[in-house]
Design a protein that fits this description.
about 190 residues, four-stranded antiparallel β-sheet, alpha+beta, 11 strands
Length: about 190
C-alpha cells in the first residue's frame, strides 16, 4: 500500500458505514506513536447495505465528517485511507511454483512467482483490495511469517500461496467518486471485515 501521509504529516482514515461516517486524523510523534488530532462523525446518507446508492448524499456525509475532523485538528487533509464500502468481497487463494534457474532464489524469481500468482486470479469485473503472500514453499518445505526472507536461499523450486481479497471494480470507482466530491483523494482502500 502506498504511503497515505498528507503534506502536513497527518494521517486520515475514513470509515463509511450504513448508519454513520467517521473520520479520524492522527499525527505520529517522534517516538512513532500515533495520537488523535481530530475526529468527526456524520449521519451516513446515500449508503444502504454497504453500497453507495446516492453519490451526492454520500459525498455530503463524507464532507461533514471530514470538516468536523479538520476543524478539531486545525489542519487540512488532502488524502485519506478509506474502508471499502462494498456489499461483498471475494477471497481467493492461489498456489504457484516455479523452477529456480540459478539454484537460489533471486529477486527475479520473487517477481516471477508473484506475477504467476496474479495471472492465476480471475479478476473479470473485480479489483484487488488486498493481495499478499500467506505461505512460501522452497522445494517442498513451507515457510510462514514475516521473518522469512527467501532471497539467496538454495533450492530447485520456489512457490508461493497468495491470498487476494477482491471486490467489484465499479463499486470501488463509485466510492472514489463520493470521496472526490468531498475534495479528497483516496490514497487506498481496505476491506472492512
Amino acid at each position: 500500500m502506498q504511503d497515505f501521509a498528507n503534506k502536513n504529516g497527518l494521517y486520515a482514515v475514513l470509515d463509511i458505514g450504513t448508519s454513520g461516517t467517521r473520520c479520524l486524523i492522527a499525527k505520529v510523534g517522534e517516538n512513532g506513536e500515533p495520537t488523535i488530532a481530530g475526529h468527526g462523525i456524520a449521519l451516513s446518507k446515500g449508503v444502504k447495505n454497504m453500497t453507495i446508492v446516492n453519490l451526492a448524499d454520500a459525498g455530503k456525509s463524507i464532507g461533514k465528517a471530514m470538516d468536523d475532523a479538520e476543524g478539531e485538528a486545525e489542519a487540512g487533509i488532502e488524502k485519506i485511507l478509506c474502508n471499502a464500502v462494498v456489499e461483498q468481497t471475494q477471497s481467493v487463494i492461489v498456489n504457484v511454483k516455479i523452477p529456480l534457474k540459478t539454484g537460489a532464489v533471486t529477486q527475479a524469481d520473487l517477481s516471477a512467482v508473484r506475477d504467476a500468482a496474479l495471472e492465476k486470479i480471475d479478476f473479470k469485473d473485480k479489483q484487488a483490495l488486498h493481495c499478499f503472500p500467506v505461505e512460501y514453499v522452497l522445494d517442498d518445505k513451507a515457510f510462514h511469517g514475516d521473518d522469512f526472507e527467501p532471497e539467496g536461499l538454495n533450492g530447485d523450486t520456489f512457490g508461493m500461496a497468495v491470498h487476494a481479497i477482491l471486490c467489484e471494480k465499479n463499486t470501488l470507482r463509485t466510492l472514489h467518486k463520493a470521496i472526490a466530491q468531498a475534495h479528497l483523494d483516496c490514497a487506498g482502500t481496505v476491506s472492512s471485515p
